[in-house]
Amino acid sequence: MQKIFELLKKPGIQLALLVVILVMVSGAVGLFYFQTQVPPAQPIQFPHNIHIGLQIQCLYCHPGAWRQASAGLPTQQKCWACHGQLKKYWQPEVPVAQWPVELQKLRGFVESNKPIEWVPVYQVPDFVHFNHRPHIAAGVNCENCHGDMSKKTVATVEETVNMGWCLKCHMERTQDDPEKRIKLIDCGTCHY
Amino acid sequence: MANPKIPEFKADWKEGEEGRWGMAIDMDLCTGCQACVAACSMENNVPFVGEEMSGYGRQMAWLRVERLWEGEYPEVKMTPFQPVMCQQCGSAPCEPVCPVFATVHSQVEQLNLQVYNRCVGTRYCANNCPYVVRVFNWADYDRPEPLPNQFNPDVTVRRRGVMEKCTFCIQRIHKAEDQAKSEGREVVDGEVAPACAQACPADAIVFGRMDDPESRVSKLSKDGRAVHLLEELGTNPRVAYLKGGSNGNLG
Hints:
The complex is a heterodimer.
Chain A: H1 2-8, H2 11-34, H3 48-53, H4 58-61, H5 76-83, H6 87-90, H7 101-112, H8 132-137, H9 142-146, H10 163-173, H11 178-184, H12 187-190
Chain B: E1 21-26, H1 35-43, H2 50-55, E2 64-66, E3 69-70, E4 77-78, E5 82-84, E6 103-105, E7 112-114, H3 124-128, E8 135-136, E9 163-164, H4 170-182, H5 195-199, E10 205-209, H6 216-221, E11 226-227, E12 239-242
Parallel strand pairs in B: 1-12
Antiparallel strand pairs in B: 1-10, 2-5, 3-4, 6-7, 8-9, 11-12
């Protein structure tokens, strides 16, 4: 023990230790900031949990999921179709300034008639062609990939979205159907 | 000529297999208008390489309309216009040579795939293609505004250093199959048309199911006028060329 303290008093060792610590800290910070699956900033901090608590279906706002490739993100008209009717917010004695902050933002989008530029969270690269429809048709539920949204406000990435993750599920679900498996692990099914 | 044995460690191909998708091109109807070439480039996000790169022979059209001279100069006869694209060979020479398995045979669609994200650009496949239909991205070609607005979102925009070729518009095949599946039926004849067949004003390009004996394309490919390009190589091409007219060489 004494020897180690003696060593630590040498400036050369101290410098070396400092460098090592710096490298480790910057590595950790870098890992945190530059990892690929950080959820992006959204124009409105949309509270998914409240909406799901009101028993609104996923497909009400993302209707593309059951008939096309892209699930779609709601326009401000869709939000306003409900929120515009909520009497609580129409009462003149409640001024806009007293609304919840995120709803004020929505009101701003509606009044300026500008689209809400939602940022897609689950993204695949350009060379991958994902289609929601067959997944919903095969009985995969939203939460299998997107996590339990009733516990989240803005969408976050719940799974490591890479080809191994896709194939793992494709293989598991086609264990006793070799014909389907050939289709589901064919390169041309997603890459073209 | 007897079919030479092609090394079969990759292409899962059996003798006499017709394949799933096929094309028939009537060269007596083709007027060489190049509408198919333009439509193909638009559909598949094929870049324009410009004059300088063209000078190096680096044109990127997936489909070319070929025309050759026959005979010595004064007595020249023209061969008919012949649109040549990837023949989607059943036993493709490009497949066994790829070191990274970027060009593979789809067992489902029976097509010759090019997996862009796997391709490392050795260009071995292009050198082994007897039809010379593979093109290589020699650079990231400039697409000035507003050209990027007409990108087809269903097709990858390829990067520099990637080989590409005709896919039989596999994105349209997938779309039609998806539609048919959601309606609980099979794809009907005439439901899928690649961009070239759709654009052809003379209806010279016919596309459809080869495994359906009643489809238009399989009837045309069994026609007496049908020939396949470089049939003697044993590549088992899926594109049939129909020819029998005089090609304007009267007398």
